Amino acid sequence: MTLKELNEAEDDFDEDDMKALEMYRQQRLQEWKILQKRQKYGDLREISGEQYVKEVTNAQKDVWVVIHLYRSSIPLCLLVNQHLSLLARKFPEIKFIKAIVNSCIQNYHDRCLPTIFVYRNGQIKGRFIGVTECGGTNLKLEELEWKLAQVGAIETDLEESPKQNITDMMMSSVRSASIQDTSCASYLYGRGPIQSEKKPSGIRKVAPGGSS
């Protein structure tokens, strides 16, 4: 029976029926509010560096924000944007954003791109810096979804990492890229719109020209 049919039948209800009807109405109202909240976003939006603090750092309370810093001249950045557009539709409760890196951080190195940050309540909850951390040049949609799920940004129905079978083969390349990625992180936290943010655990400050 629909809400309209229930309203038309109210005259025939006794007190218990009216109580049950009111409970049903409240339940449907709460479900509607939750649905509206979950469908708040639904697309990958472009912002400028000037909007970073407002849209990312000071985003609405308890909203997960995924921001991709990119350059259109880098193929993997374009691929990540395609994947994020699809994930934004699949997870409309998450705020997906992209920004041209030069509008946020000047002279940022290409080797540090793509760069993806995951925020919640003004704090960085996850970051993926450079080709290796972002999943490689042949990054699949499911692999990026899994990465975002691992830092808590989304609730995926994937039961295991899509790259589970080749993880061991990638470990050597991950280790060789660690110095580069740490340097990128050091560069990020010394400049740009996130310089005042708390560094994610595991990142050490590297002096310019120094080693990790």
TrEMBL record:
Phosducin domain ranges (all copies): 1-152
A Pfam family: Phosducin
Lineage top rank: taxon: Eukaryota
GO terms, biological process: protein folding
Entry GO CC: cytoplasm
Family: Belongs to the phosducin family.
Alphabetized PANTHER family for the sequence: PHOSDUCIN-LIKE PROTEIN 2, VIRAL IAP-ASSOCIATED FACTOR HOMOLOG
Full protein name: Phosducin domain-containing protein
Organism expressing this protein natively: Mauremys mutica
